[in-house]
Amino acid sequence: MAAKGHRARFQDRREHLYDFLDEVLVRCPRCTACAVVVPRPSTPPDRTKPPGAPHPDRRLRCDTCALVRDTTATTLTFGTPHDPYFHHPLWLQADVRGHILWAYNAQHLTLLETYVSAHLRERGTAAPAAPTSLLERLPTWIKSAKNRTKILQTIHHLHATLPPPDTPAGPQP
Question: pLDDT tens digits, residue range 144-168?
């Protein structure tokens, strides 16, 4: 029987970090409030890239201080607690026993929570030559059962820092 608050089973749906780039929550470089990095409005699709590849045209928007910045990123950096486009610190990051736990947005954080809380973690079915999933690339300290409680406490704390969905820094239609 699973412990209270823990899921018994999790099956990897093979998500990648790219799947969470529609909205990246960052610390505003001007006022330190929660800002959002989104695709630049009216950006035509880039037909030279494969489907699902991140588009380089992004907008940083802070509704607290009215900051708006656009960029066309030439180099995207993944795997750090900074957004891949402007390289600003992510809003959702916290120290867990000397390691940084981070997420791009609420959906990414929820995926991590679901994965960590599961006692049985199953790999999803991969197509031949498919890249490894986000969860397969997680560091060992996140996968370790001995860190489960502390990581889940940290995730719950990070969830509490999310702007409500109906606020300007929250999801936009």
Answer: 999 999 999 999 999 999 998 766 5
Q: Give the per-residue pLDDT at 44.
A: 64
- The parent domain of residue 156 ranges over 9-160
Q: Bin 66: left if φ > 0, else alpha if -120 < ψ < 50, else beta.
A: left
What type of residue is 104? Y
Specify the pTM: 0.85
For the chain, how many structural domains are there in total?
Answer: 1
Q: What is the pLDDT of residues 58-73, one digit of tens each?
A: 999 999 999 999 999 8
Tokens of 57: 């045209």
Among 131, 136, 107, smallest CA distance to 22 is for 107
Could you tell me the two tokens for 22? 């529609």
Cα–Cα distance, 108 to 105 (Å, whole number)? 5
**Does a structural domain hold residue 170?**
no
DSSP assignment string, 140-173 = HHHH-GGGHHHHHHHHHHHHHTSPPTTSTTS---
Q: Are 101 and 142 spatial neighbours (Cβ–Cβ below 8 Å)?
A: yes
